[in-house]
Structures are given as C-alpha cells and as structure tokens.
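User: My collaborator and I are trying to settle a disagreement about how two of our proteins should look. Neither of us wants to argue from intuition anymore, so we agreed to look at predicted structures for both before our next call. Could you fold the first one, then the second, and keep them clearly separated?

Assistant: That sounds like a sensible way to settle it. I'll keep them separate. The first protein:
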Amino acid sequence: MVSDVENILEDRQEDYGDALPNFRKIGRIWGALLGIEDIPPFKVALMMDGLKSVRLSGNPEHKDSWVDKLGYTSLGQAITEETIKRCKCGAWQDLNLGCPTCTLIDERYVPKGESAK
C-alpha cells in the first residue's frame, strides 16, 4: 500500500503542483465560505483525512480511500515540516497562527520589513 501512496502523491504533484500552496488556497476558500479565518494547510490535510475516514466507515473495503487517507496523513506531516522550514527567523510557535514575527511573501515567511529574496 505504501507504493500506492507514493505513486498517487507523485501523480497529484504532477497534476496539481506542490501541496503546501494548494492546501493554503483550499484553506483560504474554505475559511471564506465558512466566514472564518483561513484554515491552516495542515488542518486542510486533517480535514481531508477526516473525509476519507467517514467514507471508510461506510465502506471499509474501498482500498482507494485507505490509500488516500495515508496520502493526506503523509502530506499533513510534510506540510508541517515545510511550513516551519519556510520561516526564516526561527521564532515559529504555532501552526495555527503562523510565525509571530514574519509575513508570508511568495510562499515564504519573511521577517517583517524585509522582502522575499
């Protein structure tokens, strides 16, 4: 099943690009639709995993949903690491709030007052 997950993640990467900016866009749209703040990318991964869990509770023999669930878990972990890595100042505290001293510019967290380079 691990090779199935790796294959589907590679296919989706080719089709849709990097997961982090895509999940950030999804979180922005979901937040707007719900009338709340943007949903952080790692929570988008958790929510998609939750969707697959609900589907599996109705049909636990559907292998694709198990593969997708593992894929979202893998993406959530990778997104968390990548988000923290993109913070230049090292003051990262909370994935829900972002970095308290940086601004998101061109998919990078840059200390306030600096430009993305």
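The second protein, kept apart from the first:
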Amino acid sequence: MNRFEGKSVIVTGAASGFGAAIARKFAHEGASVVCADLNMTGATDVAGSLAGAIPFEIDVADEAQNNAMIQAAVDHFGKIDVLCCNAGVPHKGNYMIRMPVEDFDRMWAINVRSIFLAVRAAIPHMPEGSSIISTASIGGKRPRPGLAPYNASKAAVINLTQGMAVEMAPKVRVNCVCPVSAATNFDFQTMGQKDLPEEMEKKVIDGIPMARRATPEDVADAYVFLASDEAKFLTGVALDIDGGRSIQ
C-alpha cells in the first residue's frame, strides 16, 4: 500500500527503537521522511535504508534546532503532512526524591518542551488534513512507582495532545500513543543494562493480558493508522498500545 505517497513526514528519535520503526513504516507506505535524532550516525543509517528519506541531527529541546529541522523538511519536500514527535527519554529507575534536579529538567525538556517547539515551528507549513502524533506512555495514565517524574512527563504529553487537538481542529488532527514497556533502549536507560533481568521481565509480562511487551512495530502501526484517512475523525486520542495492561 502507498497510503502516504506524496506526503512528507518528520520523525524525531528516528535513529532507533520506536522512531526507526515509525520512519520505516511511513517510508514503506510511500512517504518522504525526515529521520531526526541527536544520534546522527543512527539517523543516517535509518535514512540511508529508505527511499526518499533524509537524516537530520537535532537536540529536540533546542528551539533553533527545531526551527532548522522544520525548514529542512520544507526545503526538501515543500510541506509537512505528518509530524511525529517521538523523541523522549526516561530516567534511572528510582524514587523521585533521589532524582537530581538537572536530570528532571533535562527529561522534561526532551519529553514535553520538544513537542511545543516542533509543533509551533511546523504548523505554518502543515496543510489542511495534516496530523501531529506524539509518543506518550501507558505510565502517563497508570503510573507505577520508580518512574514518577517520567510518568508525569508522559501525562503532560497526553494533556498537551488534547489541548492542541482542540486548538488546531479542524485543520490539523493531534493524537498520541501510549505504549506499554518495550524491549528498546528504554531498558538500558532505566536499568543500566541492555535487557531486563529474567525475573523482572516475567513480572512485567504477567501484568499484560496479551502476554508480551510492546514492539516498535506495534507503535509504528498505530502511528500510521492515526495519520491515515482511516482515522480522519479521530483527534485528541491517547491510543493505548499496551496489550491490555491499563485495564488490570
């Protein structure tokens, strides 16, 4: 299928994990994609594997760099049809009172401020019928101990999504996805190791009725659906990609 042929898509955090899968899915559906990430090597690798894609190096918390990313998309593709604000970071798993203030501020800048900056810069270049999608987390709806500041930042993403949806309707639709735990770089950033210990992995999966963690492809599928004509009447939605975790 080429549902996005002739469309221009920006994906932040595109060097790995969810972002790489999102970029690939849109490209395979015919879109021209800007693969944006602080990891330029990774972004270049992903873009190089996709027809009509370009890499862009960005610190998503920086205003000038967001403006430059939007301008690069417009210079190359003439417009922005889908803005995917996927970039985000967790913090080391620990109770909130043990978290350094600078880590808190940096995480919120990447997880929340970045969306504000990218959307503000992109909107003048987004035609009617365009779509903005962000990556929140099921933890933004159903928080668990050990990641309180991270979960709060993702709750902010959900609220920001809903507020933007009201402000930007009917020209632009705004939605977000709320994934459950996935085997991405998230584990390393929170636990300091590539994979969860076997006992912890089992505990996580035991809390998910579908009996597995999310995959990057699960998230990419949701992004493409929300940006597609099949979702043309959906805005302000925080779509759970959680295998039923939130109903337990």
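Some points you might bring to the call about the second protein. Residues 8-183+214-242 form a domain with the Rossmann fold fold (CATH 3.40.50.720). The first helix runs from residue 17 to 28.
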